[in-house]
Amino acid sequence: MTNLWEDLETGPNPPEEIYAVVECLKGERNKYEYDKDIPAVVLDRVLHSNVHYPSDYGFIPQSYYDDEDPFDVLVLVEDQTFPGCVIEARPVAMMKMDDDGEQDDKIIAVPTEDPRWDYIDDLEDISQQRLDEIEEFFTSYKNLEKGKEVETQGFEDKQAAMDAIEHAQELYDENF
C-alpha cells in the first residue's frame, strides 16, 4: 500500500509546484489526519467550535516542519474534493501561526489544473475577504478545546512560502 507522506514526491517541480494530500474538506467540521502507520486518512476529531474549513486542507508529501509534522497546506478550491485526494498545486502565500508554542505555518496554494485560480500568483492576488476568512478560521477553530491556544501571525508572500517548503524538505531529508 502506498504511503502518501513517504512514497509520494513533494511535487512535480517543488517548491513552485507541489502535491497537496487532502485531509480535511472545505465546508466541513471533521478533522481528518493522515496516519502514516496505517496508512490511511482517519477521523481525528470533530472541531469543537462551530466553524468549518475555509478550503481543502492537508499536507505536503515528503515534508516535515518545525512542529514535527508534515507541512500543512490549504488549497483554495471552488468545490471540495475528498480525503486522500492528491492535488497538484502552486504555492501563493503562507500564513504564520503559533499552535500551543510551536510554529505551525500554513502554505496557501491554488490547484494547477483549475483555470479559476490562474489569476492568483502571489499574496496580493488573494482578496482581503478570503484572507480574513482563513485567518478567522485558524484563530477560532480550537477555541472550545480545553487548554489549546492558537495565534495567527499574519501572511507572507509566495517567496516566503517557497522558502518554507524547501526548509520542510530539508527537515524531512534530515529526519527520515
Indicate the overall shape: globular
Q: Between the first and last Cα atoms, what is the distance in angstroms?
A: 19 Å
Point out poorly predicted stretches. none
Question: Helix and strand string, N-terminal first?
Answer: EEEEEEEEHEH
The strand count comes to 9
Largest sheet data: 5 strands, mixed, barrel
Provide the helix percentage: 10-25%
Question: Approximately what portion of the residues adopt beta-strand conformation?
Answer: 25-35%
The oligomeric state of the chains shown is single chain
- Integer-rounded radius of gyration: 15 Å
Summed up, the helix count is 2
Binding site for Mg(2+) 2: 72
Keywords: Cytoplasm, Hydrolase, Magnesium, Metal-binding
Subunit structure: Homohexamer.
Binding site for substrate: 31, 45, 57, 141
Describe this structure in words.
- Catalyzes the hydrolysis of inorganic pyrophosphate (PPi) forming two phosphate ions.
- Its main location: cytoplasm.
- This is Inorganic pyrophosphatase.
- With 176 residues, the protein is of the alpha+beta class.
- Helix content is 18%, strand content 32%.
- It is built from 2 helices and 9 strands; from the N terminus they run E-E-E-E-E-E-E-E-H-E-H.
